[in-house]
Amino acid sequence: MPTILIDADGCPVVDLTVRVGQAHGVPVKILCDTAHRIEREGAETLVFDKGADSVDFALVNRVQPGDIVITQDYGLASMCLARRARVLNQNGLEYTAQNIDGLLARRHENKKLLRAGKHPKGPAKRTKEPAKRTKEQDEVFVEKLDKIIREDKKRNS
What's the domain range around 60? Predict the structure, then answer.
C-alpha cells in the first residue's frame, strides 16, 4: 500500500488530502518545517529544521516506489518521479516523465527573465493576496487523487 506524503509548507490541500487518504485507508504523512508546523488528525506530522529545501530532501529520502507525493515544487516532483512515486500538484496536475522536463525548462527560463529584470508572461499580479481556491479546483484535485489511489488498489489486487 502506498503512503501519501505532503510537502505541506504552503500547501492548500492538506485537509483534502488527509480526507481522501482516510477514506481509502491510505496512510498520510505531512512534512513541514519548524516555521510551518501543520498537524491534522488522521495523519502523521514530520517536522524538520527550517532551512532551504530541508523538507524537500527529507521527503525524497522517505519516498518509496508507488507512494503518492503532493507538491507544487517542480524540482521535488522530478526527484520523486526518479524514485518511481506518483506526484500530484494542488490543482490535480499529475507530474509525469512526459511533462516534467518541459515544466522545469519553463521554470528555468522564467528565472532567467527575472534575473534580467523582465517579467515572464502570465497573468498580472494585482494583489499580494494569493487567489482564493475554488470549489472546482478542490473537486478536480480530489477526483485525481482518488483516481490514483483506485488505480493503485486495482493494480495491486
Answer: 4-123+133-155
Task: Kindly write down the DSSP assignment for every residue of 88-118, as one continuous string.
Answer: E-TTSPEE-TTTHHHHHHHHHHHHHHHHTT-
In a domain, 128, yes or no: no
Distance CA 47, CA 49 (A): 7
**Interval 52-71: pLDDT, tens:** 788 999 999 999 999 999 99
Q: What cell was used for 152? A: 493503485
- Cell triple for 145: 487523487
Query: Cα angle vertex 98, ends 113, 6, to 5°?
Result: 80
- Confirm whether 32 is domain-assigned: yes
Total number of domains constituting the chain: 1
